[in-house]
Design goal:
about 450 residues; mainly beta; five-stranded mixed β-sheet; 1 helix; 33 strands; elongated
């Protein structure tokens, strides 16, 4: 009896295993794309192709139809269409043929259809269309994200794919969008940032910015390849100025730097804020500094507390420069609480003004002047050296004052001090010594910058 039972159970197991194998073999099917119809054989890049399809798998339910657009063997667009059941008819489906990099006029663009059933088995069919490139205008517009400034980029005569900008003149990096209209809201084509620097893709105004980056170079002009969507640039090497990595005993980052008049440069290890640069020695635009004064070695003192960079030569004497000593002023364009109770009249860098020579017999110093000082006013004099040399210094008189002189009067020591109507602010004082430096000979023009 036991033997019959064992045989019976073995037969059941064998039949079950056979049934299982038959079932698995029955479900192992491949879906069928019976037909695909597309509505055209040529397509303008940015337009959509309309298509329909008859899809079937008599055994295994369908899952998804994946539709990919390929240009130069790269997928440039993709959609997924859910398919249910064993027999599916699709009508009036659309996929965009994007305006992507590297597609030439009349290039073949493939549309690959991949039908997948619920078991993951698939089949493919490819349709090919011919690309028509959109016509771009002669002028494109690069809108800087940093400044909002718009730079025109013109198509070149020898290569219509190449666009060249006007002068840009930025240091290292510029970011922004490129478009066929200066107003992004009215643009047909907008290029935004690609996966890499100096690369662009067709996108939207809200997409990430294009980054054109050439570290430690001055970008003079931008180039754009409207075929490969790649940016290039005309560049010149940028001089970089490095201050000491540690503060000196007086709390400054310091360097003695050789400058040539007119040269452009950037600071390597300190950040000089755009509104706090030294206007007596530098011009500034988009991170680039231009040295304005006579060529030579100059001493730079930067305070991260006061956020200002002083430029001087502490050994200079008249007629190479004149020294401003007193209280109630600073060369920084911004007055902060650090300057209240600041004292004065000593020869500390941060309490001095250096009137730099800007032309024959002309000297300039820009200072924030404020009567909100612990001593209740401001007062300063003009010396020929830092040893209180007044014999060769400048003695002012009321008749010698020109410009915005309201609020200034002559002090008892032939300098300037607070008068009725004074308004604190950032002033530029220009001294003209062509008639000499004695009392009443030197003219002093006063200009309020802000």
């Amino acid at each position: 009896m036991k033997a019959y039972k064992v045989i019976y159970l073995s037969l059941i197991a064998t039949v079950a295993g056979f049934t299982s194998c038959v079932k698995e073999e029955t479900r192992n099917s491949t879906p069928v794309i019976e037909s695909i119809q597309i509505d055209r054989e040529q397509v303008l890049l940015t337009d959509s192709i309309r298509f329909g399809a008859q899809l079937k798998d008599p055994v295994t339910p369908l899952s998804t139809l994946e539709v990919e657009v390929l240009a130069n063997n790269q997928v440039v667009n993709h959609i997924s269409i859910r398919t249910k059941g064993n027999d599916v008819v699709l009508e009036n489906q659309f996929i965009t043929i994007p305006f992507a990099a590297g597609i030439a006029e009349n290039d073949a663009v493939d549309i690959r259809f991949t039908l997948i059933n619920v078991d993951g088995n698939e089949t493919q069919q490819v349709k090919t269309v011919q690309a028509i490139r959109p016509e771009l205008p002669e002028t494109l517009y690069f809108i800087s994200a940093e400044t909002g400034k718009t730079f025109e980029m013109k198509a070149t005569e020898d290569n219509p794919y190449t666009y060249v900008s006007e002068n840009v003149m930025v240091t290292g990096t510029i970011t922004g969008k490129l478009a066929d209209n200066a107003d992004l809201n009215s643009a047909r084509f907008i290029w935004s940032g690609g996966m890499f620097e100096n690369e662009a893709v067709i996108g939207k105004a809200t997409d990430m910015e294009i980054t054109v980056s050439y570290p430690f170079q001055i970008i003079q002009r931008l180039y754009f390849d409207a075929f490969d969507f790649i940016f290039g640039a005309d560049m010149t090497s940028l001089k970089t100025v490095r201050l000491s990595s540690e503060k000196n005993a007086d709390g400054f980052y310091y360097a003695a730097v050789d400058f040539t008049q007119g040269e452009i440069f950037a600071f390597e290890n300190v950040t000089v804020q755009a509104d706090l640069y030294n206007r007596d020695f530098f011009d500034y635009q988009d991170g680039i500094f231009t040295f304005l004064r006579a060529s030579g070695t100059w001493e730079l003192y930067y305070s991260d507390v006061l956020q200002y960079l002083w430029v001087t030569r502490m050994e200079d004497v008249a007629p190479d420069c004149y020294w401003i000593r007193g209280h109630g002023f600073t060369c920084s364009p911004v007055w902060t609480a650090d300057y209240y109770g600041f004292g004065g009249w000593d020869a500390l860098v941060e309490r001095l003004g250096y009137a730099v020579k800007i032309a024959d017999n002309k000297y300039q110093v820009s200072m924030y002047v404020n009567d909100q000082h612990e001593w209740g006013n401001f007062e300063f004099e003009i010396y020929s050296d830092l040893d209180w040399g007044k014999d060769q210094g400048i003695a002012l008189t009321a008749a010698a004052l020109t410009g915005q002189r309201t609020g200034f009067k002559i002090s008892v020591s032939d300098g300037l001090t607070t008068d009725v109507g004074f308004v604190p602010g950032y002033y530029r004082f220009t001294f003209d010594t062509s008639r000499g430096t004695g009392a009443g000979r030197t003219l002093c023009n006063i200009e309020r910058l802000f």
